């Protein structure tokens, strides 16, 4: 009998898992000692102001006019990039925005847990937080040279964080977040993404690959137009696999090269008013049938929002029961 950690690794590597894993549950999530997004109203480590509302997903959101770069031509003067070497790396926590307990690195159960460092708000997201969304989108089109220089500086910071994370905590995986899409399309047209995001993202990926880290790329939205690019660059996992993408097609095209985590429809099934338990169970079975062949699938919601306990229980039970039956067919 293999352990849950061993089975999850088999799923990630597409090496004959014995059951469909549920939601990366053997992963220990570590957060670095700086603030990408505060848990309450206030400033992040880049000087961007955030507001808070209990009704907002996650609570905090970028404040109106809270960005720091008011003139792209002067971004060198107006940007604050945290000093990685001056951070207190003894303060790695279990929650973002200093919201979790401090981690005792020497007490981690590495035999049974995959250790994952969280690196949030990647190149695109941090650029619009610094510039404001409207200005960022316009500058990607009209000021590509300056945007490229800004993105390069952000990438250098992310690389420094990953490098230090590895030195201090020896993670097995990096969860690298950057939301590139809406429900209909990419924020940036593919040629712009390839010209301004991809070259610098490749540098970040190379940093992870040099350290044999599992690259767990988070990106919400409809990103299938550039999905082949992240596979080509070496991503090992993509989450959360939102169904606005043609997931069956992506699995067919790239399932021998990358693992998929997520995909169980949050918007139109799990969080839909009036959804039934049987509809939830049917969605779980459908997604496992669609995504789990050959390994490479971790079953989970396509987004994390508060669900009713009854819905969560039905989803988890179906993943665990049908997920065990699936590979025994």
Number of domains: 1
- What's the rounded overall pLDDT mean? 96
Work out the oligomeric state of the chains in this entry. single chain
Q: How far is the first residue's CA from the last residue's CA?
A: 18 Å
Strands side by side in the biggest sheet: 1-5-6-7-8-9-10
User: Stretches where pLDDT falls below 50 for ≥5 residues?
Assistant: none
Q: How helix-rich are the residues, as a percent range?
A: 40-55%
What amount of the residues lies in strands?
Answer: 5-15%
**Compute the gyration radius: what is it?**
20 Å
Structural class: alpha/beta
Which of globular, elongated, flat, extended, rod-shaped describes the shape? globular
Write down how many β-strands occur, each being a DSSP E stretch of 2 or more residues. 10
Most strands sheet: 7 strands, parallel
CATH architecture: Alpha-Beta Barrel
**Tally the helices: what do you get?**
11
CATH topology: TIM Barrel
Which CATH C-level class is it?
Alpha Beta
Order of helices and strands: HEEEEHEHHHEHEHEHEHHEH
């Amino acid at each position: 009998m293999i352990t849950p950690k061993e089975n999850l690794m088999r799923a990630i590597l597409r090496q004959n898992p014995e059951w469909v894993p549920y939601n990366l549950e053997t992963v220990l999530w570590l957060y670095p000692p700086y603030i990408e997004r505060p848990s309450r109203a206030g400033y992040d480590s880049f000087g961007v102001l955030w507001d808070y509302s209990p009704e907002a997903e996650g609570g905090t959101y970028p404040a109106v006019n809270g960005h720091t770069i008011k003139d792209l031509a002067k971004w060198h003067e107006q940007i604050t990039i945290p000093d990685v070497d001056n951070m207190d790396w003894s303060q790695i926590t279990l929650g973002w925005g200093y919201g979790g307990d401090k981690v005792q690195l020497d007490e981690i159960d590495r035999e049974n847990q995959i250790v994952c460092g969280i690196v949030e708000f990647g190149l695109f997201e941090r650029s619009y937080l610094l510039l404001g969304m409207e200005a960022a989108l316009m500058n990607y089109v009209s000021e590509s040279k300056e945007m490229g220089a800004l993105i390069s500086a952000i990438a250098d910071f992310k690389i420094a964080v990953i490098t230090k994370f590895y030195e201090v905590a020896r993670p097995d995986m990096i969860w690298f977040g950057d939301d590139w899409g809406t429900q209909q399309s990419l924020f940036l047209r593919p040629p712009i993404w390839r010209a301004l995001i991809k070259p610098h993202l490749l540098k970040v990926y190379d940093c992870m690959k040099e350290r044999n880290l599992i690259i767990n790329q988070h990106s919400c939205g409809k990103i299938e137009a550039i999905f082949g690019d992240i596979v080509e660059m070496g991503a090992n996992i993509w989450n959360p696999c939102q169904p606005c993408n043609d997931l069956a097609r992506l699995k067919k095209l790239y399932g021998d090269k990358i693992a998929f985590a997520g995909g169980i429809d949050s918007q139109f099934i799990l969080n839909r008013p009036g959804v039934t338990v049987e509809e939830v169970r049917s969605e779980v079975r459908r997604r496992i049938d669609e995504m789990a062949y050959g390994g490479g699938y971790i079953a989970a919601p396509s987004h994390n929002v508060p669900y009713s306990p009854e819905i969560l229980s039905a989803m988890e039970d179906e993943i665990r029961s049908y997920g065990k039956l699936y590979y025994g067919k």
